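Standup notes
- DV: blocked on the single-chain target, sequence here:
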Amino acid sequence: MPAKDYYNVLGVDRNAGSKEIKQAYRKLARKYHPDVNPGDKAAEAAFKEVNEAHEVLSDPEKRKKYDQYGDQWQYADQFARTQQQQEAWNFRRGSRVRLEDYGDLGDIFDSVLGGFPGRGTRQSMRGQDYEYPVEITLGEAIHGASRMIEVQVQEDGRIRPQRLQVRIPPGVTNGSRVRIAGKGSPGFNGGPPGDLYLLVSISNDERFQVKGVDIQTEIQVPLVDAVLGSEVQVPSPNGKRLALKIPPETQNGRIFRLRKQGLPALSGDGRGDLLVRVQVQLPTRLSEREKGLFEELKQLRS
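- DV (later): unblocked, structure below
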């Protein structure tokens, strides 16, 4: 996943002031606004990105973190805590001789600070866990996917980028956390490293909505078929069309369940279902004969 450059998104210099950033945002927001570009998915994506860039660069605190950590700015506080832990350990390790020169007082500091090499117990510390947001398509949620991501890791008090090829297993859904063991922050004093967690979200699909491991879709059914019954073809997330029997007198909004046509389970052999909501389609441009038949039906029903 390539890093986002919010300055490039807004078309401003990295030293741009808040006024310049606001002007650039307003100009681009008007250009890509959905009301100006109805149905244009590219403009919709650009509008979303422009808003995201403005949200970060217009906030002094967020901008400061972004300038330091790039698109990993959301984890700045985690990086800072890790750095403080590293500096605290470096201080304790470097202060060993000086504290020992204070005799009993040095023992007091030693016990408070958690121990020094050669004096009492050396405490190891596990590294920090990180979360990394990853957006995938519905097809990737069904079949699995791989991503090349860039994370910021901290070693010896320094932050450096690291590229990782990660695998997202089939069956993940919105909010799933995929654990990449040992790819978080390094541990201290021999402690194990933390883990990296991919925080998964599934991108919007016009035809399908993810409901846990189930997938929901909607089909149009002519009024006559809903009243008299019929068999219709339903699109599935796999690209295949499935046969669905519509019984007579099917009501608008009724949901049918096609078993095991949803997302695969992350563990085991289970699978979610495909939920098909029926939207009864009323006829238009009726002929005189058709209107007469409806009038006759109206009389019969009354």
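- Follow-up: Residues 89-120 have pLDDT under 50 and may be disordered.
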